[in-house]
Amino acid sequence: ADAAISVTDLTVAFERAGKTIRAVNGVSFDVAKGETLVLIGESGSGKSVTLRALMRLHPERQTRQTGSIRINRQDVLKMDRRQLRALRGKKIAMVFQEPLLALDPVYTVGQQMIECIRTHHQISAQQARALAIAALEAVRIPSPERRLAAYPHEMSGGMRQRAMIALALSAQPEVLLADEPTTALDATVQIQVLILMRELQKKLGLAIVFVTHDIGAATEMADRVAVMYGGRIVEEGSIGDILHHAQHPYTLALLKSRRHGMERGKPLDVIRGSPPDLANLPPGCPFAARCDQVMAHCATSVPPTTRISQSHRVQCHLAAA
Ligand code: SF4
Ligand code: MG
């Protein structure tokens, strides 16, 4: 099947204050139509940077990007301004963690939705209004006509996030990118929004790339999971591969931290040490300094990618042995 998104050997580096920050270091993945890939990892693992690269949102001047990002067989890294404008919003849309930052406080939800729709479709304001109402209905916002007249601050956090999803979907994209879209919400609302995203995906056949640091959210959303560390995908598999047959010591630590995190309300804290300095990456495995199974050659040689099965691959010297 044709992939909706196909990323090959992507690198993203930022030039800042005379330093080169190597945020993404050779990432490859495909996402099919109707499929959700979850990118999971700690902050600084490269997941958000990867996601933003898919829409080419990084400031061009201080960023170096190599590899290829094909969406509908077109390489995003080679697009000109006009092609990028057509891509953003129309083919591909994004929802962020805090919708208040993305929604403009001085315009009503309706004004913003109608403007967004009309930017991407040549239709009348009235037709756009009808589409906006349909989009709010699709995300189960009650009395959508009345909601169009509301300002963002007049809605609850969960409703705002649903309105953002409606806004993102109102241009009828094929790809949805989501960066921690439910992290700011409380647990029950979080689950409702995730279930809603899944339902919309089924209905619309969306390809979704979903970034999170939370295994619970990953379990709810994922068909496949890519575990990121030090700007690399260190393990990728189906949600079943990752939950039940994880091989990479970092993935295993993540899964363990979840069980602790549930009690402490602070996931990921239980992995000792801190992530590598992206301006000064170690020459070997990026996880070597924190790995409880580290071997002598881990510090000097980057582990190769080993295929465990058709759906499952891992970058660790243990799996290669
Ligand atoms: Fe640990 Fe070595 Fe595997 Fe890296 S390559 S995760 S240091 S065992
Ligand atoms: Mg982030």
From TrEMBL:
Pfam families named among the record's database cross-references: ABC_tran, oligo_HPY
Entry's Gene Ontology BP terms: peptide transport; transmembrane transport
Subcellular location: Cell inner membrane
InterPro entries attached to this UniProt entry: AAA+_ATPase (IPR003593), ABC_Ni/Peptide_Import (IPR050388), ABC_transporter-like_ATP-bd (IPR003439), ABC_transporter-like_CS (IPR017871), Oligopep_ABC_C (IPR013563), P-loop_NTPase (IPR027417)
Keywords of this entry: ATP-binding, Cell membrane, Hydrolase, Membrane, Nucleotide-binding, Transport
SMART domains: AAA
Residue span, ABC transporter domain: 5-255
Gene Ontology molecular function: any one: ATP binding
Gene3D superfamilies recorded: P-loop containing nucleotide triphosphate hydrolases
Membrane topology category: Peripheral membrane protein
Cited NCBIfam families: oligo_HPY
An example Gene Ontology CC term for this record: plasma membrane
Source species, domain of life: Bacteria
SUPFAM superfamilies: P-loop containing nucleoside triphosphate hydrolases
Species for this entry: Advenella mimigardefordensis (strain DSM 17166 / LMG 22922 / DPN7)
Main EC class the enzyme belongs to: hydrolase
Family membership noted in the UniProt record: Belongs to the ABC transporter superfamily.
EC number: 3.6.3.-
This protein's name: ABC-type transporter, ATPase component: PepT family
Keyword Isomerase: no
